[in-house]
Amino acid sequence: MRRRSGPPARRCGSCSRRYGRAPVNKTNCGTCGREYFGLVGSRFCSRACAPGRPRTRPDPGKCAHCELPTKLPESQFCSRQCAAARRRLALRTCAGCEKQFKPRLSRYSTFCSRECDFAHRAKCKSDRLTASGGQRDAPRICRKCNTILENRRNSVCLTCKADQYRKLLTPKKSKPCLDCGVSIFGWANKKWCHGCRRKRARASAVAKHGKVSKHRHRARRYGVAYEPINPIEIFNRDKWRCQICGCKTPRQHRGTIKVNAPELDHRVPMSKGGAHTRNNVQTACRGCNSRKGDKISPVTALGFAVAEWTAGLKRAQNQAARFEKSMRLARQNLGADL
User: Fold this and answer.
1) pTM score, two decimals?
2) 174 secondary structure, DSSP code
3) Domain residue spans in the chain?
4) CA atoms lying within 13 Å on the CB side of residue 20
5) Contact 285/247 with Cβ under 8 angstroms?
6) Tell me: the pLDDT tens digits for 156-184?
7) Which CATH number does 226-315 carry?
8) Cα–Cα distance, 144 to 164 (Å, whole number)
């Protein structure tokens, strides 16, 4: 489509067909006075003529090192390399001796040498102490013998420190345990070894509480009656004999995993509503207590039915007798063959 002559269009062809042509008129520029076609209300022919805008791009500055144009007018160097080279070439004034020097690295540009650095630090420290009244210059005293310390960083003198090491290296005196006689080391009031202390603590806990904390929690859990019971009293009442099978339960087997170890058993289990009282507890060996579990059996003179709980034991004894008889016959036959 051929464009017609006239003022310049402000929209493209598709937008002009859709929205129509933008309203323009012929007017003069307010700055240069040139006649131009512009939108209604415009006053300048271009951005250069608009006030507050520079008509030309400002000239770039020159690099202070290589004199090449910089990217920005306010920049002093054209690149980082030129800035680093200029810093290397520049002379600095030492803060200690106030002499001109050329630093090797940019981060070491305050003092010309280590001596000047240390001297300046000492001078600043003395100035601070003088300004504060010299309180930090007071001598430090040993906290043990009250002598003046040569080094203010220490808290005790060398003599007291040597005494400390001497005490640490000196072997501790031994003394015999009051129960077993084993040599022990430690504090002056230490009387028993580790094993004897544990035994005495356990015995005192049993004598005081009777090891009933577990039963107390179980009674509270099942909601049954409870009274503190010392197992040793129950064992003495039953003469250290199992009330189920009638076997002896030696006192030295208490707390072991042997079959005839004495244990406290409930005639009516607590899970079935039995109370933790002296009338409902009895002595039982470990084997019978394990086989009984939470069952309830008819009560006899010894507690529960003896025949029911000794049947397994009798069967085991019969099997052992038959095995011994067969082994005896085999040895006799083997001797006859030889």
Assistant:
1) 0.31
2) P
3) 62-88, 226-315
4) 3
5) yes
6) 888 888 887 777 666 667 788 888 888 88
7) 1.10.30
8) 11
